[in-house]
Design goal:
Largest sheet: 7 strands, mixed
Shape: globular
Helix content: 40-55%
Order of helices and strands: HHHHHHEEEEEEEEEHHEEHH
Structural class: alpha+beta
Strand content: 15-25%
Number of helices: 10
Number of domains: 1
Strand order of the largest sheet: 1-4-5-10-11-6-7
Radius of gyration: 20 Å
Length: 296
């Protein structure tokens, strides 16, 4: 069994949803072919390149190189289609008004906003536990006008099918109009930003909360510390786009439970105890069966 060097939010999600696939992808000595990038993945990756190139060009002296980002993020077999789709989504995003409002937030940041960060670090819990290596790639990080740390992430859902915004948005942009907040939202001004005081992010989407919490820890927050998550969810239905904007905290209990889960995952990997009823023969049977099915 291979040794894993770090845990990422996507790896932790996979551990929770499909332990065998986690084992095959990260720990098995047998190589499996990488799954080719799909169109939904490609449009998200291309939009990511367009929006970060635009924002860094606007807020800095010289922005990220769009062509290099597209080359790095969109696989060759999807590049022509992905570039066109990503450009269209970015144009709709600008027209929605969500981007202009986000620019105002970034311009009010106490520190220069950071984009496309990739940091590998050791997260040390205040009670003394240490040793877990986490890898994260936040879309953006900035400070609100009141000094709060804000982790921002974009989600592109339903471009190739259909999707609706999740509940709890603080603003919904539809055809260039601001439609107001979701009925579940309780707006409260926190450090210069209106935040949904009625729900934690984990009440809206646990995967979003898990991902952004790990990003916050990597960027220096302690386990259980307050921070704000900003999500722009771009959703599509019948060829039209809406943008749901979310501003939430992540609960202290959720953070501590997540940290304990990560410690358990890390320890079990180091000890080779991947499955709940773990033994070497069972792993080998599962691995051989799954590997054979993947190669068909």
């Amino acid at each position: 069994m291979k040794k894993i060097e770090y845990l990422s939010p996507s790896a932790i999600d996979l551990w929770e949803s499909n332990r065998l696939e986690f084992y095959l992808r990260y720990l098995s000595e047998q190589k499996t072919e990488k799954i080719p990038q799909t169109q939904p993945m490609a449009v998200g990756a291309a939009f990511d390149a367009f929006v970060k190139s635009y924002l860094t060009g606007l807020l800095r002296d010289g922005g990220m190189d769009l062509e290099k980002m597209l080359e790095n993020q969109v696989e060759e077999h999807q590049r022509v289609w992905g570039r066109a789709a990503g450009s269209q989504v970015f144009s709709w995003y600008k027209d929605s008004g969500a981007l202009a409002d986000f620019v105002l937030e970034l311009q009010g940041s106490e520190e220069r906003p950071e984009f496309e960060i990739e940091i590998r670090d050791r997260v040390v819990e205040t009670l003394g536990a240490a040793g877990v290596v986490l890898l994260g790639k936040p879309d953006a990080f900035y400070r609100s006008r009141g000094g709060a740390r804000v982790i921002h992430d974009w989600k592109v859902n339903g471009y190739c099918s259909s999707a609706s915004p999740k509940k709890g948005y603080m603003q919904l942009y539809d055809a260039g109009k601001r439609m107001g907040f979701h009925k579940n939202s309780v707006p409260k001004m926190v450090d210069g930003l209106y935040v949904n005081n009625g729900e934690y992010l984990e009440d809206i989407d646990r995967s979003w909360a898990r991902q952004t919490t790990i990003y916050s820890w990597i960027l220096g927050a302690e386990v259980g510390e307050d921070f704000i998550v900003s999500i722009h969810q771009l959703v599509f239905r019948n060829g039209k786009m809406r943008v749901g904007v979310y501003k939430n905290n992540v609960g202290e209990k959720f953070q501590k439970d997540l940290w304990n889960q990560i410690l358990e995952i890390w320890d079990r990997i180091q000890e080779g105890k991947i499955f709940d009823s773990d033994n070497e023969a069972r792993i080998r049977v599962l691995e051989d069966t799954a590997f054979s099915s993947l190669m068909r």
